[in-house]
Specification:
four-stranded mixed β-sheet, globular
């Protein structure tokens, strides 16, 4: 229905594993549904195109929040993006996870990510040839 209507899609890819999605977000088919949706958005708009000022004109930008203890399954997410979407995908790797509400009930979600965890995901992105990162990596607070 949205084919030809939307110029820019910015979906989240929260989990690389449906068991984790079921446990922490009560979303048992998350990975399959999410990957199908991301493939369709890419089919519609392709890789992100920026103008001469760096403003997005059309395309796909994927967001991925790095979670403590690799709960997000970042390697599976990055492999999917590189192998089934495009290694030229514009990617926003986010390091700003903050525990809140009942996070204490769900370790390791009860803590911030470490600088090492975020650096590891950046290195994975590099290994998969994903180099269009939304912003320079920030230094993450140590836990």
């Amino acid at each position: 229905m949205l084919d030809g209507v939307i110029d820019i899609y910015m979906p989240d890819m929260k989990y690389g594993d449906s068991d984790t999605a079921r446990k922490y977000s009560r979303a048992p088919n998350y990975t399959k549904v999410n990957q199908t949706a991301v493939k369709e958005t890419y089919r519609q708009v392709g890789d992100l195109v920026l103008d001469e000022k760096g403003l997005a004109q059309r395309g796909l930008l994927i967001r991925h929040l790095v979670l403590p203890g690799n709960l997000a399954g970042s390697e599976k997410v990055l492999a999917f993006i590189a192998n089934e979407i495009s290694p030229n995908t514009y990617l926003n790797l986010m390091d700003q996870y903050r525990p809140c509400y009942r996070a204490d009930d769900y370790p390791p979600l009860d803590r911030l990510i470490t600088a090492e965890e975020f650096s590891s995901v950046l290195a994975m992105a590099n290994r998969y040839g994903l180099r269009r990162l939304d912003q320079p990596p920030r230094v993450t607070r140590r836990v």
